[in-house]
C-alpha cells in the first residue's frame, strides 16, 4: 500500500496551486505589474513580511500571469553581486548564458535593453531575499535598472522581497518609490487549513486529523509554516 501520493507537497520549495489567505496581496501585486502587459512602466513593489508568510509563493504565482512580457526571477542568495544579478537578467531576456567573468556588466545591460527595444516588451525583475545583498550593491543595481527608461526608453519594474524594509540612498529611493505590500503572520486557523490541505494532497486523505492539529500548533508556536 502506497502511503504517500504526492511527495512534492512536503518539499520546502513547494508552491501550491492556490495561495490561500493572500488575496489582497495577490490583487495588489497584479495591479502594480499589469502595465507591463501594455509595455508601460510597472509600479515597483516591495513585498515585506516575516519568513514563511507567502511572499515567494505569491510572487511566483503572479509572475505566471506575465508570459507576454519578460520576467527575471532571481534568488539573491545565489546571486549576491551586481554582475551575477545582471547576468541572470541577461539570461532570462536573451535566452542564453552570460559569460561568468571578465565581461563588462554594461555590455550585458546594453544587450538586455536592445532586446527589450527589439521586441517591444517590458521587463519585470524580481529580487527575492534582497537583503542578503550588500546595501551598496542594492543601491547600484536599482539605480541601473530604474534609470533605463531615461537612457533607452524601455520599461522596467522591480519587485523586491524582504523580511524587513531595505535601506536605499535618497537618490535611489526617489526613483524606486515602491508600493509596500505587507504579509502578516498566518493565524493558527490559517496554518491549520493550509497544512490540512497539504496533508490531504500528500497522503491522499489517509491521515489522522489530530496529527495535523499537533503539527499546526507546533508551526504556529514557532511562527513558521515551513515547520509543518
Shape: elongated
Strand content: 5-15%
Low-confidence stretches: none
> Main beta sheet: strand number and arrangement?
5 strands, parallel
Total individual domains = 2
What is the alpha-carbon Rg in Å? 20 Å
Strand order of the largest sheet: 2-3-4-1-5
CATH topology of the largest domain: the name is: Rossmann fold
Q: What is the CATH domain class of the largest domain?
A: Alpha Beta
The succession of helices and strands, N to C, reads HEHEHHEHHEHEHH
Query: Gap between N and C termini, in Å?
Result: 24 Å
The secondary-structure class comes to alpha/beta
Give the SSE layout.
Blueprint lengths: L22 H11 L11 E4 L6 H9 L6 E6 L6 H13 L10 H15 L3 E6 L6 H12 L1 H5 L3 E7 L7 H7 L2 E4 L5 H16 L5 H13 L7
Parallel strand pairs: 1-4, 1-5, 2-3, 3-4
Which descriptors would you attach to this protein?
alpha/beta, 44% helix, 228 residues, Rossmann fold, 5-stranded parallel beta sheet
3D architecture notes:
- This protein has nine helices and five strands; from the N terminus they run H-E-H-E-H-H-E-H-H-E-H-E-H-H.
- The model has no long low-confidence stretch (mean pLDDT 92).
- Helices cover 44% and strands 12% of the residues.
- It folds into two domains: 23-182, 3-Layer(aba) Sandwich (Rossmann fold), CATH 3.40.50; 186-227, no CATH class.
- By secondary structure, it is α/β, with parallel strands linked by helices.
Short description:
By secondary structure, this protein is α/β, with parallel strands linked by helices.
Amino acid at each position: 500500500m502506497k502511503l504517500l501520493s504526492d511527495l512534492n507537497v512536503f518539499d520546502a520549495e513547494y508552491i501550491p496551486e492556490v495561495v490561500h489567505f493572500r488575496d489582497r496581496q495577490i490583487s495588489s501585486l497584479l495591479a502594480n505589474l499589469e502595465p507591463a502587459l501594455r509595455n508601460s512602466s510597472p509600479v515597483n513593489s516591495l513585498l515585506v513580511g516575516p519568513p514563511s508568510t507567502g511572499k515567494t509563493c505569491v510572487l511566483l504565482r503572479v509572475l505566471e500571469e506575465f508570459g507576454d512580457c519578460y520576467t527575471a526571477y532571481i534568488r539573491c542568495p545565489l546571486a549576491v553581486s551586481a554582475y551575477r544579478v545582471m547576468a541572470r537578467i541577461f539570461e532570462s531576456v536573451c535566452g542564453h548564458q552570460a559569460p561568468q567573468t571578465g565581461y563588462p556588466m554594461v555590455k550585458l545591460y546594453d544587450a538586455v535593453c536592445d532586446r527589450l527595444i527589439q521586441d517591444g516588451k517590458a521587463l519585470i525583475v524580481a529580487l527575492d531575499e534582497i537583503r542578503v545583498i550588500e546595501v551598496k550593491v542594492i543601491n547600484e543595481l536599482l539605480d541601473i535598472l530604474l534609470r533605463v527608461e531615461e537612457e533607452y526608453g524601455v520599461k522596467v519594474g522591480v519587485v523586491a522581497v524582504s523580511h524587513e524594509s531595505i535601506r536605499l540612498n535618497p537618490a535611489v529611493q526617489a526613483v524606486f518609490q515602491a508600493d509596500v505590500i505587507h504579509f502578516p503572520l498566518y493565524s493558527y486557523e490559517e496554518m491549520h487549513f493550509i497544512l490540512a490541505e497539504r496533508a490531504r494532497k500528500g497522503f491522499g486523505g489517509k491521515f489522522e486529523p489530530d496529527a495535523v492539529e499537533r503539527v499546526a500548533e507546533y508551526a504556529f508556536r514557532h511562527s513558521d509554516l515551513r515547520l509543518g
